[in-house]
Amino acid sequence: VQLQESGPGLVKASQTLSLTCTVSGGSITTKFYGWAWVRQPPGKGLEWMGVIDYDGDTYYSPSLKSRTSISRDTSKNQFSLQLHSVTPEDTAVYYCARLISGEKDYWGQGTQVTVSS
Fold it and tell me: Which of 16, 31, 52, 114 has its CA 20 to 30 A from that of 87?
């Protein structure tokens, strides 16, 4: 299974950050996998942002829930992240990952997103 993040590397403050994760070698509708977004701000640890399950249900980090949306396109085997009203504090490396039983077993390589003020 391979995951690959894509999207703009630079976003202006107050705008929406949009990233897509393209999955190959496995279907995002296969039971019972989840497909997650995780980020790592510079000098900080990993932060779980949210997940979309194989059946399309979504779950978000409480701290980001009001600004986050995760969706999917099953025809393209992709899932996407939107983070609204970004600030420079949202600058991070963003990763997509596959979850099974709550554990991340496959990760994308990560993509740097910088929010300019």
Answer: 52
3-state secondary structure 24-84: ECCCCCCCCCEEEEEEECCCCCCEEEEEEECCCCEEECCCCHHHEEEEEECCCCEEEEEEC
**CB of 21 within 8 A of CB of 107?**
no
Instruction: Give 64: exposed, middle or buried? Use CB within 10 Å, 0-12, 13-18, 19+.
Output: middle
Question: Does the structure show a pLDDT above 90 at 49?
Answer: yes
User: Rounded to an integer, what distance in angstroms lies between the CA atom of residue 104 and that of residue 36?
Assistant: 8
- Which distant-in-sequence residues (6+ apart) come within 8 Å of 13 by Cβ? 86, 87, 88, 115, 116, 117
Structure confidence at residue 114 (pLDDT): 98
Kindly report, residue by residue over 55-86, the tens digit of the pLDDT.
Answer: 999 999 999 999 999 999 999 999 999 999 99
